[in-house]
Structure prediction request, 437 residues.
Amino acid sequence: MEEKKTYRVKFATLGCKLNFAETATIGRQLKERGVLPAGRGEVPDVCVVNTCSVTALADAKCRQQIRKLIKSYPDALMVVTGCYAQLKSQEVAEITGVDMVLGSEQKGEVAEYVMRGLAAREREVVVTPLPRIRKFVPSCECGDRTRYFLKVQDGCNYYCSYCTIPFARGRSRSGSVATLTAQAREVAAAGGTEIVITGVNIGDYGNGTSESLMDLLRSLDAVEGIERYRISSIEPDLLTDEIIEFCAGSAKFMPHFHIPLQSGSDAVLRLMRRHYDSALFAHKVARIKALIPHCFIGVDVMVGTRGETPELFEESYRFIDSLDVTHLHVFPYSERPGTLALKIPYVVDGKTKQERVARMLELSERKQRAFTERYVGSVRPVLLEQGRPGQPMHGFTDNYIRVNVRPDERLANRVVPVRLERMCADLSVDGEVSALD
Prediction:
């Protein structure tokens, strides 16, 4: 009797945490069908690329990754999915060696398409038009990480002037509180300790239903066995005082927020078609710090957008400098076809964009260094992750300071008290595990 072939798959994921969670789900679904991850040195039968399209640079990185895999594994079934595949399906399909292009609506069915492609090597381009993207594809995975990523929401209704994400992922939609809470219970049963709540626009959770984000947070907070939750990113106008107060009073929701700002200039925020102004953002930061003084606050900042004159950039810089925030995720504006921003006449040249990025990054380092130094010498709870043999273990404090400790495999996936001893050049901290119970 002929032995059934065991297929191997290699993944490449670009972009956001949501993409990584979805890739892990695809990997699990393929494993259930007998398609196993390719180990080091193994030649895969399938390559799956989960793409990003948030900037022109992201598109270029996707093309580069696709071509690299095709060159390395010319006989593998090449499958491309994700935002770039949705927005520019024909452009992807024209890359020699690509076998399947699957859009956002097809992400939950990638495993079925792969099995069909392995059985009969036929080229397919399957992309659902934007108005018909309706599915919420669940995902709650950790992949090779310790923390689980729970996808609670997908899509976006905001249509900011610079952004293509609503065109790539469709309208806002969510999972139900009951199904998402059940997934959290499964994580607890599997020994999971921390869950990161993720989505495209998490604050819009429950849009069009009778459920709200607060309903979900309360339900998750009651799940036994999960010690930690983090909210990956939430729009400032959707981060209500009620949510802040709830997180401040919860033992499970960590003192850690990530809030997109994009610009500290109200004029630029209006050009971006954002849903708030600098005063509202400052109020949210002040409210968090009043209730949770040790909270880590990360902020998205875009520089060089159309309309950002030198004066407006300086206004944005001064405002951000005045905020009690911890870290800036800084990126230059990128022209995206079909966006309203292209109608704004003032264009910032590439050199100026990079100079502004450099200034914001320097500001970010200064803020993060000051925040971290505040806690050197203290003892904080750290969830330690499985380390590589002979290498230090690392993990994050409750307030998201990265900590390195001497390896001890018994500590993997455990929250332990660690004394923060000294800061490193990369702004992490070397620590010593305190006496355990």
Notes: The first helix runs from residue 17 to 32.
